[in-house]
Design brief:
The structure is a single chain. This protein has a single domain, classed as Winged helix-like DNA-binding domain superfamily/Winged helix DNA-binding domain (Arc Repressor Mutant, subunit A, Orthogonal Bundle). Helix content is 28%, strand content 18%. It has four helices and six strands. The strands form two sheets. It has a three-stranded antiparallel sheet. The protein has a three-stranded mixed sheet with strand order 5-4-6, with no helix packed on it. It is globular. Bound molecules: zinc ion (3 copies). One zinc ion (ZN) binds next to strand 2.
Length: 146
């Protein structure tokens, strides 16, 4: 469902391509994110990283990654921000994440549906879109099996 953009070897390379120093917290965040098929909120990420990183550092890592086009923010059903890995088309200050996001009402996870094609959007005359957010609410493939 989600196309994996990253593998282990790529983490350091990805940071370097974005003129970012390779640091343990940055690598840690990328590793955790690449292992999941859903987006992750900062508090959950903080728990997974444990003592490796403090809250301020983590906040800065996420902010930098968002600016660099490495991660994008997704808002879940409760209005909480989650982060997901960007498609390879994203670059600094230029996100191309106009894909559907799937909000599961049972596990509350948010998934990027990168491979779904978007419908053509025709706006009325005089309207100019700056960004598009597409979300689907329902039951994800993990929860529907139970
Ligand atoms: Zn992006
Ligand atoms: Zn679910
Ligand atoms: Zn997404």
């Amino acid at each position: 469902m989600t196309s994996r953009v990253l593998n282990d070897k790529d983490f350091a390379g990805l940071l370097q391509r974005n003129q970012l120093k390779v640091t343990a917290p940055r690598l840690g965040v990328l590793k955790i994110m690449a292992d999941r098929d859903s987006a992750i909120s900062q508090p959950v990420l903080e728990k997974l990283m444990g003592a490796e990183v403090d809250r301020v550092t983590l906040y800065r890592v996420l902010k930098t990654f968002e600016e660099k086009g490495i991660l994008h923010k997704v808002i879940d059903l409760n209005g909480t921000a989650h982060y997901a890995i960007c498609s390879s088309n994203c670059s600094e200050h230029n996100h191309q994440d106009e894909h559907f996001h799937f909000n599961c009402t049972q596990c509350k996870q948010v998934y990027c549906l990168n491979d779904m094609h978007l419908p053509a959007i025709h706006l009325p005359e005089g309207f100019e879109a700056a960004s598009v957010s597409l979300s689907i609410t329902g039951v994800c493939n993990h929860c529907s099996k139970e």
